[in-house]
Amino acid sequence: MQELSLTAQDWKRQSKQVQGEIYAMLDRLDAGELEPEASEATREQVRALLRQLKRDRDAMVGLVAEDTTFIDEIETRLKELEKRAKHKFHLVPPAPTNAQIDYAEKRMRHFAQGKSFYKLFWVFFIGCFLGVMVERIWCFVRYGLYEPRVGLIYGPFNLVYGIGAWALTLALYPFRNRGKIFSFIGGALVGSAVEYACSWFQEMVFGSVSWDYSSQPFNLNGRICLLYSIYWGVLGVLWIKELYPRMAKVILKIPNKVGKPLTFVLLIFMVFNTVMTGLTTLRWMERCQGKPADNAFEVYFDEHYPNERMESILSNLVFLDPVEESPQP
Question: Fewer C-beta within 10 Å: the chain N or C terminus?
Answer without folding.
Answer: C
